Amino acid sequence: MTTVALKPATMAQALTRALRDAMAADPTVHVMGEDVGTLGGVFRVTDGLAKEFGEDRCTDTPLAEAGILGTAVGMAMYGLRPVVEMQFDAFAYPAFEQLISHVAKMRNRTRGAMPLPITIRVPYGGGIGGVEHHSDSSEAYYMATPGLQVVTPATVADAYGLLRAAIASDDPVVVLEPKRLYWSKDTWNPEEPQPVEPIGRAVVRRPGRSATLITYGPSVPVCLEAAEAAREEGWDLEVVDLRSLVPFDDETVAASVRRTGRAVVVHESGGFGGPGGEIAARVTERCFHHLEAPVLRVAGFDIPYPPPMLERHHLPGVDRILDAVGRLQWEAEN
Amino acid sequence: MTVMEQRGAYRPSPPPAWQPRTDPAPLLPDPEPHRVLGTDAAAEADPALLRRLHAELVRGRRYNTQATALTKQGRLAVYPSSTGQEACEVAAALALEDRDWLFPSYRDTLAAVARGLDPVQALTLLRGDWHTGYDPREHRVAPLCTPLATQLPHAVGLAHAARLKGDDVVALAMVGDGGTSEGDFHEALNFAAVWQAPVVFLVQNNGFAISVPLAKQTAAPSLAHKAVGYGMPGRLVDGNDAVAVHEVLTAAVRHARAGGGPTLVEAITYRVDAHTNADDATRYRGDAEVETWRGHDPIALLEHELTERGLIDEAGLEAVRQDAEVFAAALRDGMNQDPVLDPMDLFAHVYAEPTPQLREQQAQLRAELDAEHDSHGGAHR
């Protein structure tokens, strides 16, 4: 077996590679969105695709998100596999009617005759100093819509694997790309990309015995950092990276919590009506007799996303996570 | 250096030359809606086409009255009638080739039926079932669309995709006057024009969006005029003149197929019935207005032409009526059969493979049904 030298690559580069490989492998894959052609996207994720595959395969559309997704529906009806880019989380909202009333429902209402293999890429989350409307965590809206799959990568390798899996899926997939991880680097071999894993599998990012941090996307590195810091407190934290919010991997999550007996859900999205409530309920329903403490949530506050000058107070950080871990009723063990 | 500081050196120059990106004149609709019946042009209309349109219109009217009757018998949950608009419905279907696609709104089941769809299948959703009832690919009829104008971008995307693949397929999308106020109408027309997609947009201006008249919907000179802003031709036609609608739509389809891009057609017609069987039209309009439009009935107009020219006699008319009765009887029989519904199917097509969570919920419903079955002594499920 030959050893391949691993080179550092960014998440954005891995996403570009995934698009390029998917387009090369399947002529029905079409990329479309605002500024995705000549410019290569505001985050440069579609860099070079229009040049390599032509503007019919990587298309600068008019500036209208409902139109982008709506026309993608028609293209999928005719056998194409559109990959649309919503430029920013909060700019995807005009497309919600198409998403909810058509993209999510078409397979069902045609009894499987007309599936829509559309991939919707949405840069999301905060932490990049964006002004208002550029930092929303909109995952709860997507999760609440039956018919959509929702994935979000936290590593360079997963960015490639999940996007390839999304494009290959015959169902619509919302790929939430954590903006602040676009430039995160990892040793990753672009010449030999990771095998594409099926959507719906969580992964234990860091094994531990004391408690489980259940998280995803931009909060995964924060949780890993918190787990390192927790060693000083004598806690050995396990970190579960969900990767897929829909379908939800109850099995991996529950197995971890049964081992550790304690759990904290961590995400940037607001807590009220956010993913953490659903996850905490699912964990409690499955692991009640293994739990030493209530499942806690560490989330963004229930406020409109704050301005860049204040966003650090909003985002869950290491301290807020460790505070929550500290409240997991450790005294009961003595 | 600011402009103030460089004042001495700064030489103002005119901006780059400007000119309109396209000549608006050929895009403008004619001042009057296009008419054939009752004009000199009618004499040149193909007798076979006149007879065909007439037979389809009579059958269409019977379809509308039968479907409305079925709502009263509880066999349809709701029916948005297209009575009075049959000329548009039928002409839309007949203007298309087999390989083309039709994108109907919820009021356009007649167009789908005129295109060959089984009427019982076409009415599946309106019956209260959970699915569209037909495979859209079989007759190239997109699923009936309820959220207004949202099917228009689908038509544009499909036509665009067909063109990219090198297929000479045209999409015809139907929308009402109210639907033209929706954002998706605007986005669809804009995308279609920018991409020069082979699409025909047919707006049936039937005067009302449920209760709201056109005057509260738009201040445009006409809905057809909106086309000019997108850079596509707008065409106005008498929507109750089946020959004229067929002529205008056929020309627009031919134009699109030849690579000429999209067209917006506004057909002026009238919704003779209420919005649906659940609506009371007397709350927002008077009988006099309805009677005026009954005087310009699409079937009567065509029948007048046919009899004037001696293209049909009483026996011929009777044969057409008989054909419509046979059609209505078949629809009645089909709708009187209870559909077989399996609640388990509600989980089968949400995804290609049900998620683990959906499997659990499916099992839960299964158990509830079994318990129900047992408590009824196994009499029915």
Automatic annotation (TrEMBL), chain A:
Residue limits of the Transketolase-like pyrimidine-binding domain?
A: 9-184
SUPFAM superfamilies the UniProt entry points to: Thiamin diphosphate-binding fold (THDP-binding), TK C-terminal domain-like
Question: What Pfam families does this protein map onto?
Answer: Transket_pyr, Transketolase_C
Q: Extract one GO molecular function annotation from the record.
A: magnesium ion binding
Cofactor(s) needed by this chain: thiamine diphosphate
Name the InterPro entries for this protein: THDP-binding, Transketo_C/PFOR_II, Transketolase-like_Pyr-bd, Transketolase_C
- Recorded superkingdom: Bacteria
Q: Name one GO biological process term.
A: response to nutrient
Tell me which UniProt keywords the record has, alphabetically: Oxidoreductase
According to the UniProt entry, what is the EC number of this protein?
Answer: 1.2.4.4
PANTHER family assigned: 2-OXOISOVALERATE DEHYDROGENASE SUBUNIT BETA, MITOCHONDRIAL (PTHR42980:SF1), 2-OXOISOVALERATE DEHYDROGENASE SUBUNIT BETA-RELATED (PTHR42980)
This chain belongs to the protein called 3-methyl-2-oxobutanoate dehydrogenase (2-methylpropanoyl-transferring)
Q: Look up and give the organism this protein is from.
A: Streptomyces griseorubiginosus
TrEMBL record, chain B:
Q: According to its UniProt record, which cofactors does this protein need?
A: thiamine diphosphate
The alphabetized UniProt keywords are:
Oxidoreductase, Pyruvate, Thiamine pyrophosphate
Dehydrogenase E1 component domain sequence ranges? 67-324
- Which top-level group of life is the source organism from? Bacteria
Q: Which InterPro entries match?
A: Alpha-ketoacid_DH_E1_comp, DH_E1, PdhA/BkdA, THDP-binding
Q: Which GO terms describe its biological process?
A: branched-chain amino acid catabolic process
Q: Name one GO molecular function term.
A: magnesium ion binding
Give the region (Disordered) as residue ranges. 1-35, 359-381
Q: Where is the composition biased (Basic and acidic residues)?
A: 367-381
Question: Which NCBIfam families does the annotation name?
Answer: PDH_E1_alph_x
Name of the protein:
Pyruvate dehydrogenase (Acetyl-transferring) E1 component subunit alpha
